[in-house]
Amino acid sequence: MLATALLIVGGLAATWTLWVHVLRPSHDLLRRYQKGSVRPWALITGASDGIGKAFALELAKRGFNIVLVSRTQSKLDACAQEIKKASPSAETHVVSIDFAKSDFHAIRKTVDDACKNRDIALLINNAGMGTLPTRLHELNDSETQQAIDTMQVNVVAFTAVLRGVTPHLVARDHRGGIVNVSSASALHGLPYNAVYAGSKAYNNLVSHTIGVELKENKIDVLSFTPLFIQTNMVRAKANLFIATAPAAVNACLRSLGYESRTTGTLSHKLQSLAATIYPPLAGEMSISTMKKVRKQALARMAAKAKKQ
């Protein structure tokens, strides 16, 4: 009896996995969000590197114009040029702002202004930062400032962007989308990175809540909670456990319009499931990984200081 039940559950799980990751068609996001004949815009924060840049390139390829919001003007300009080269018909607009050094109202106004006279149909709320892995009670002065900046970017700026852009999505009176980039640490915690994990839990819960609020406005809201992705923040080679940014982005966009939260790639979903089933093992592995990341980061900082 038990064996039969387990067989049925396993079969259903396998069927569901096959459907979600292989058979289920991804929404044509341009067709889903375009209003009339006007080419829609996607506004992407943290757009000049890593996941944000991958979202920008992919959405431009899918027919969206792109508003790029990030800190460094030179990186924004380079990203805009790369988009133009890959997708010649796509328009771009760049906005340089340092979320860590700007207050809520300045951030809200900046993104609000960027939305004016543009048909913003999709928000990728991606800008974020983390801290050097350290136990919370052992943060030194520099690391404490990192933690403060992390809360500013991941909580205050994250919320200000939603406050600035969402009214434009609602005012379109047409289907639109929001992707809030969180992290699997929002679900399982991340030892040696407590402030980062807490801020990402905030992102995930806010995303879920506004998803309910905006359902009547036909706004698809998706919380993206991936594990490790090969970016400047995670300096490691892509492998079975670490996804490339383009692969993670494509997996995320496959879920937009279907789900309220996704971990993205199949590998990340399986890792997240394992962490849910046996949290102690996940905690031990996280500690080991974070200690390694800290050691590598300190070595890079020492090498950089030596060159100077």
TrEMBL record:
Record has Oxidoreductase as a keyword: yes
GO MF assignments: oxidoreductase activity
InterPro entries: NAD(P)-bd_dom_sf, SDR_fam, VLCFA-Steroid_DH
Descriptive protein name: Uncharacterized protein
Entry superkingdom: Eukaryota
Organism for this UniProt entry: Salpingoeca rosetta (strain ATCC 50818 / BSB-021)
Bilayer-crossing regions: none
PANTHER family referenced in this protein's UniProt entry, alphabetically: RH59310P
Family note: Belongs to the short-chain dehydrogenases/reductases (SDR) family.
One Pfam family of this chain: adh_short
GO CC terms: endoplasmic reticulum
Organism phylogeny: Eukaryota, Choanoflagellata, Craspedida, Salpingoecidae, Salpingoeca
Keyword Cell division in annotation: no
